From TrEMBL:
Membrane spanning stretches: 12-32, 44-65, 85-102, 134-159, 165-183, 195-215, 235-256, 291-310
Protein name per the record: Sugar phosphate transporter domain-containing protein
Domain Sugar phosphate transporter: start-end pairs: 17-307
Native species: Lentinula detonsa
Keyword Transmembrane: yes
Compartment(s): Membrane
Amino acid sequence: MPLPISINVATLQVAGVVSFYMSAALVMVFVNKAVLSSSPDLPLLFLLIQLLIAVVLLHISAAIFRRVEIPKFNWQTARDLTPVVLVNVIGLVFNTLCLRGVEASYFQIARGLQLPLTILVSSIHTSCIPSAKIIVAATLVSFGFFVGVAPSAALPLLASPTSITLFYGILSSLFIALHAVLIKSSLPHCDNSTIQLAWWTNFGSAVFLVPFVVFNGELQILRANLVEGDWNGKVFGWGCLVTGIFGFLLCVAGLLSIKVTSPITHMFSSAARSVLQTLLGFYIFHDILTVNRVSSILIILGGTMFYTWAKSSEFKPSPPQPVDLESARRPSGTQDSKIHTVVWSVDDEEK
């Protein structure tokens, strides 16, 4: 008689959420890269369409689920949320421009200063000096970044990222750090609802982005591409749709990952995703991996995981309380946990 198999529902739930999060993040990075490679002259239009798709999906979700509440437009709220929306859209633009100019496997190196800058901005905002362990983690991650950007004789000139592209990566990391700080003061303006803030962030970012798409001439470029007939518009069209949908799903996946798992588990899943991203970039886009790049990725991952461990050891857990989707908040124990919850916008890590 076969022995009964005991299935741990909680374990299956964690495995499912982690797999969902990793899959959504990987799809976002590689489809974004494929679209930006095929249409490098339409980065802002590509981002605008992603934002609009996220807004549409929020409205569809609100029509299906009662807990998803779309806020009513209010000029006072719009003015109050202008700083966080501006910081968000500027970060998204620099993030997109950075990804356009680097290989998919190199993207995490180009944004390697994200954790140190987040720690720095948060420390300045709170006027608190981080602990020695946190400073060590930030120093380690920063060292990994400089190892990755150091010139390498083994790297062809065409595969080397330009200085402006690396500058975009640093600015993207900086604005993500600023966004993480601004989010706390922004939530009260939308009833402390992450979903309402998601709508304001995506809608407001799209509104601010429209004039830049026009002034950058991307509508004329799109028209010229369609008229010429040799442009592969299918990659752009399907890429916009896929990244718009998966960007929305990534928001949900990031929230569920922190809700169901611990910060340590979430960070290890992020580390595993980074390794997969590097390997897939090598096989799909034929990215070049040098000793410097591999060492940089490993150092950044090691420093980030050390930060997560250090932060978790300092964190004193409060008594467990029921978690609701509207009131769920990410702990400050991970870099990704800050980013995904506070942004709730189309680009994750990939924003």
